[in-house]
Design brief:
Blueprint lengths: L8 H23 L1 H4 L15 H9 L10 E6 L6 E6 L20 H12 L32 E3 L19 H6 L3 E2 L8 E3 L5
Antiparallel strand pairs: 1-2, 3-5, 4-5
Length: about 200
Amino acid sequence: MVLGSGSPPGVRRAVVGLAALVLVVAPLLLGWHWAKLGWRDKHYNYPGTPTGYTQIVNRFGQPCSADAHAISMSWPAADNGVTYTFSFHKKLGGYPTEMVANKGGLSTNLDNDVYGHIQNKHLSQYTKSGIWGYYCRYIDGTTSWSTHAFGIAVDISASYEPQGQCYSTVNTNFASIFKNHRWRWGLDFCDPMHFQYAYGY
């Protein structure tokens, strides 16, 4: 039905009112559906966020260890439809929850809580291609171990947020979720794709 100036006022008011109701209610319905499926943000047994190399080793062990890539998860990219599977340290995920199968880990920080928040707030539309986790390597141009080698770093939207870029075009939409779960955003050092569970390094 097309409403025009000739439509009865009562019909026009009813349709406009219905449209307004949909605009108000729809986001509310969308906003809680992930939680309705069973997700809960439990903040279970998080390890303290280390500061500096010594604390990283004391908390997570040596770089490139089996623990550093003991947990894996899959994360689809919104722009190209590719699902990226990456691994990370067991202390950042794996505890059995409503949404994550038990993989022998100690906490739910990354795979349940961070990812769950992003899904629940419908921010997955902003996670773009280039999603990486554990990688046994040095920081570019140095002989110091990358936080990726400890399994405590994740790169997201790498195709859009290159290292050396001192602003964010994509990840700014969900960076606060990582920060609220004790992660540091690499935008602090012009690496906006990068999130790490460590400070001072």
